[in-house]
Amino acid sequence: MLNNSFTHNKYFNSMKCLKSTNYQKIIDFPIFLPDATRGVIRTLDSQDLRECGVEGVVVNGFHLTTKPGTTVLKSFGGIKKFMNWHGLVVSDSGGFQLLSLVYENKSFGKINDDGIIFYRDSKGKKSKNIFTPEKSIQMQFNIGADIMICLDDCPSMKSTNEENFISVKRTIEWAKRGKKEFLRQIESRKIDEKPLLFAVLHGGNDKSLRTLCAEEIIQIGFDGYCFGGWPLDSNGKFNLDILLWTASLMPDNFPKFALGVGNPKSIVDCVKMGYNIFDCVLPTRDARHKRLYVFNKKPEGMKIFDEKDITDFLYITDEKYIRDTKPISEFCDCYTCRNYSRGYLNHLFEIEDALAWRLGTIHNLRTYTKLIEILRL
Q1: Non-local CB neighbours of 167 within 8 Å, separated by 6+ positions
Q2: Which helix H or strand E contains 277, and what residues bound it?
Q3: Active site annotation includes 153
């Protein structure tokens, strides 16, 4: 058992898997978590997710606070019973969505050391909300997540060094307050099956700021650590250097969460760096936008860490697929590929039937879970 402030956690096999008392199953690493932002992955139900091989999802605290509201979730016994999902649930603090809007448009709200004041709800309607590190933790307990993430200050991609310094200092203080509230909630709720608490490391592209943030956050003590900020550089390219630097600052015997990463190649690159938890909207959003992932060769035979091009896009509404009787991918065993042709998917998207989203999303998620299976070998 790991000797840290949360002794209920058990880590196994050099971080190949994780178990806590709140989530009774062993979590194998690496793992990819699709974003079920509002408690749903559009057009899919829990059975669809299980058949795709999905083992966990990420939900968004801010959105769920607005609809259906955490009191509703609490009355159901938490998000899992509400959405009939028995897998892992990670709750995002909700800060990224709020802050990205506020930093881009000051009319949406303002940020100070106490927290975030936001002038809209998650649907964009005028509604003053005060979001603090303490409220974020309280909200996540009502959601009933297995893994919670402290509220952090994520500045814009264009932030200056001075702004990144403010972000780091604020993130450290919010992490202290978040953990204090986490411990208070456990005591007041008399919780035996404790969730895990992760914290986020910031600093933009400044390695000294990343180091400062990591040292202070690790000293506070958490169950896992997350890459915070933007994984892309100013040119829109995947920032391997700062991701690798941040991973090197995290203790190797704790989970390393690459928040917002990514596409298949980025996941493989980050696994090489030591990250083992990933989440992203890409596979589900791309499916709805008619972009379907296909492996470039049989995945079981890939030397996955040596491949330059692991997957490619199939643009299903291209004219060449109208009469195509083949499945989306010859290398895929998903429900869609076992039962439907490219031609039929092309037809569904052209007539804008909701089944197109469902079948496309099933395929993209199965491509991701197949990638994860290969990475676990």
Answers
A1: 153, 154, 155, 159, 202, 203, 204
A2: strand 277-280
A3: no
Note whether 149 and 96 are within 8 A (CB): no
Of 35, 92, 152, 269, catalytic: 92
Number of other residues whose CB lies within 10 A of the CB of residue 233: 14
- Using a 10 angstrom Cβ sphere, with 0-12 exposed, 13-18 middle and 19 or more buried, the burial of residue 40 is middle
Show the tokens assigned to 238.
């995947």
All residues at 6 or more sequence positions from 355 whose CB lies less than 8 Å from its CB, including other chains: 348
Integer Cα distance of 57 and 347 in angstroms: 30
Query: Using one digit for the tens of pLDDT, what is the confidence trace for 205-236?
Result: 999 999 999 999 999 999 999 999 888 877 77
**Catalytic residue chosen out of the listed positions 152, 269, 279, 286:** 279
pLDDT digits (tens, 9 = 90+) for 234-264: 777 889 999 999 999 999 999 999 998 989 9
Strand partners, 111: 116
Distance CA 372, CA 228 (A): 22
Query: Cα dihedral angle (118, 124, 127, 129), rounded to 10 degrees?
Result: -30
- Both tokens of residue 38? 């509002």
* CA–CA separation, 68 and 203 (whole Å): 34
The whole model's pTM is what?
A: 0.91
Structural domains in the chain, sorted by start: 10-280 (3.20.20.105), 287-376 (no CATH)
Please calculate the CA angle 50-55-57 and round it to the nearest 5 degrees: 105
Active-site residue 92, yes or no? yes
| Interatomic CA distance for residues 214 and 250, integer angstroms | 7
- 141, with CB counted inside 10 A (0-12, 13-18, 19+), is buried
Question: Residue 300 is encoded by which pair of tokens?
Answer: 């079981």
Q: Please give the Cα distance from 302 to 307 (Å, whole number).
A: 7
Q: How much helix, strand and coil, in percent to the nearest 5, is found in the chain? A: 45, 20, 35
